[in-house]
Amino acid sequence: MFERYQAGEQAVLVHIDFPDESCKEDLNEFKMLVSSAGVQALTIVTGKRNTPDSRFFVGSGKAEEIRDAVHLVAANVILFNHSLTPSQEKNIEALCECRVVDRTTLILDIFAQRARTHEGKLQVELAQLRHMSSRLIRGWTHLERQKGGIGLRGPGETQLETDRRLLRERMVNIRKRLDKVEVQRQQGRRARTRAELPTLSLVGYTNAGKSTLFNTLTQSEVYAADKLFSTLDPTLRKMDLPGIGRVILADTVGFIRHLPHDLVAAFKATLTETREAELLLHVVDISDDRRSENIEQVEYVLKEIEANEVPQLVICNKIDNLDDIEPRIDRDEQGVPIRVWLSAQANIGIELLFTALAERLDIQVVNHQLNIPPSAGKLRGELYKLNCITHETFDEQGYCHLEVKMPSREWQRLIATKYSELVDYIVH
C-alpha cells in the first residue's frame, strides 16, 4: 500500500525544545521509548525552536543537519520525539532519503509488539489503521504525475480510493469484533457484581511499577520489566486480602505524556474496568523527578476515559530508591487514607496497603469464635480457603476451636449457599 523507504533498527533521534508546555517532550523518556521498541540509537540531534516549521518541522538548516547525521552514521530510520504531519514526514524523507517515524507511530509500534491477547491485537490494529488513514495520500507520491489533465489521467486516484475503502472496511470489521469482546466483558462484570466482588484497578504512568505491585499482591507472574509499556493487555485476578476478603484486582496499560488519541479511543473498551472500579490504585514512581507532571498526565487520561470521578488511593512506589523514606499511610483531615508509601519490588509497606484498602473499601467485618465438630472438617477447609482463620486449637474430643475474621458479605454467603449450620457453631 505504501511506497516508502524501509525502516530499520539503527536510528537517528531528533528532539527539539519548545517554550510552549503543550509541545514539550522529555528526552530521557524518548530514549526509553526507543529502547522499548528495540531500536539502536546511533546519535541524537537536538535543537530549539519557538514554533514548529510547516515544511520540515525543524527548519531547513536543522533538516540538513539531520540528513548529514543520517549519512554519517549510516542510519536507516529517523525517529522524532514529536508528532509530525504527513507532509512534514514526506518532506524530511525526501530530503534525507530515509524512513521517518514520529512519536505517535513509535508508540503504536511498541503497542503492536506488546499485544498478546486477541482483544489487545485488535485494539492496536484499529489505532494503527486510524493513524494510517490520515497518511494514505503520501503513499502514492509516485502517481502524482497522473493527477489529471488530458493524457495524464491514470489509475492513481482509483487506487487511492480503493485503499481508503479497504481501510474503512477493515476498521468496521475490527469494531464489530471488539463489540463482541465487550459483550463478553460485560457478562464478566455482571457476574462479579452478582458475587458482590469489589474491583480495584491499578492505574499510573508507564513504568511506575504497577505490574510489580500486581504480582506482589496476587502472587502472579505477569510480565514486569523496566521498560515503557511492559504491560499492554489488561489482567484481572481474584485475590484474598487480609481483613478484606475476596476482591478483583485489574492491571491496566500505563499512561504516557501525549498518549496518541487514537490509542485512547481504541482502548476505551479495555479501560472500562477502570471506569467501573470501586477504587483506583494510582501508582506513582516517587523516585522520578517528573512525578508531578506524570500525575497530571494520568489525571488527564482518566478524565478523557471518564474515570476521573472514581475514588483514588495514591500508591507512592519505589521508596527503596530514596534515602530516609519509611513506609507510611498519609491521611486527610477526616482520617481517611489518601496515600500509601511502599516498595513493591522490595516488598516493603505492603501490610500498610492492606490496612488502607480495608478502610477505603469500608467493608464490614465480622469476628466469631466457632466450635466445629470433627464431622464438619469440610467447613474448616472452606474457612482456610477464605484465609479468615486467626487462631485454631483442638480439644480432646477432636472439636476444632476457631477464631475467624472475614467480611460480613462472605459470612452471609457461606450461610446462604453451603453451610447454614455455621450459626449453630458460634460460641456465645
Automatic annotation (TrEMBL):
Xref: Pfam families: GTP-bdg_M, GTP-bdg_N, MMR_HSR1
InterPro entries linked: EFG_III/V, G_HFLX_dom, GTP-bd, GTP-bd_M, GTPase_HflX, GTPase_HflX_N, GTPase_HflX_N_sf, P-loop_NTPase
Keyword Cell membrane: no
Protein name: GTPase HflX
Record's subcellular location: Cytoplasm
Family label: Belongs to the TRAFAC class OBG-HflX-like GTPase superfamily. HflX GTPase family.
Main location: cytoplasm
HAMAP family: GTPase_HflX
Gene3D superfamilies: 6.10.250.2860, GTPase HflX, N-terminal domain, P-loop containing nucleotide triphosphate hydrolases
Subunit note: Monomer. Associates with the 50S ribosomal subunit.
Keywords: Cytoplasm, GTP-binding, Magnesium, Metal-binding, Nucleotide-binding
Position of the signal peptide: none
Span of domain Hflx-type G: 198-365
Functional summary from the UniProt entry: GTPase that associates with the 50S ribosomal subunit and may have a role during protein synthesis or ribosome biogenesis.
